[in-house]
Predict the 3D structure of the following.
Amino acid sequence: MGKVHVLLADDHTVVRQGLRKILESSPDIEVVGEVGDGAAAVAAAATLKPDVVLMDVRMEQLNGIEATRQILATQPTVRVLILSMYDNEQFVRQSIEAGAQGYLLKDVDDEVLVEAVLTVSAGGTYFSSSFEGALGGIGSSLDILTPKEREVLRLIGEGLGNRAIGERLGLSIHTIETHRKHLMEKLDLHSTVDLVRYAVRVGLVQ
């Protein structure tokens, strides 16, 4: 397995230089690019195709949360780790909704940052422990789904289409379409990609 390729997005050059030094102290990580604003992060992610984007929240042109949303809309396999100075649960929730796989504060130890990048790149999530309250809302949202809706969501997360899900569950395509519509309404999601990312985040699929 090759190195984890990381794109740095932060509006302070000194911060980016420090992050590069920390991350490249690990033999498993290579920083493939640096950008100073959200719009540049979207463009660079499309060109460089990193494994992980280490994203600041507050940047010019486009904030990190919206940049995350735009990157994952076209590159759902990219993993985004938010690194912010803001200890703000609202930002955490917005980041998660945008598709980010982690949220860390900038005062974390070097070793924690490296561990978080490697964890996220391997398909896991990594959030500062102070944000457990914000994360609790994600898991509890599953409680509003029926058992059948959860099963449909799990199969969507595994990449199955409506016909394949219907065959698996012995239901008509129309019924599966109805379940899909209800899932989007209940979870306030707007596309199949959103449903897949949500299923991964809440642990229904790996």
